[in-house]
Write a structure and sequence with these properties.
This protein is mainly α.
Amino acid sequence: MLESLQTEVRPWRTRANGLSLLRLALAPALAVALLGSRPFVAALLVALAIATDLADGAVARRRGETSALGGLLDHAADATFVTAGLAALVARGEVPWPLPGLVVLAFVQYVIDSRADRGARLRASVLGRWNG
């Protein structure tokens, strides 16, 4: 029983998913940095988020760890990071209040559209990559 549970959990625990989870964990720190008027810290966090976003897919492909979960986690981390930053900027009065919600809606629409067309994996595109 324990062995089958470990086998089910292990595919989720990959280096690429770890990079996506790191980006997810950076989202609250970005919001705090922006709310605390720490632009240098916020810029470093954005640079780290970009680096992890560029690396997670490459790591997954190189190590043979690509999965539908990994793709979803990658995009969810992107959407969460951007939404947290935008929410902080809304609180500072620097961006319009609907923007974070629109990012979330765009992500949800993308997931629904991708799953309807292709099954388990999310659709990739050059435009989507640049948007991320």
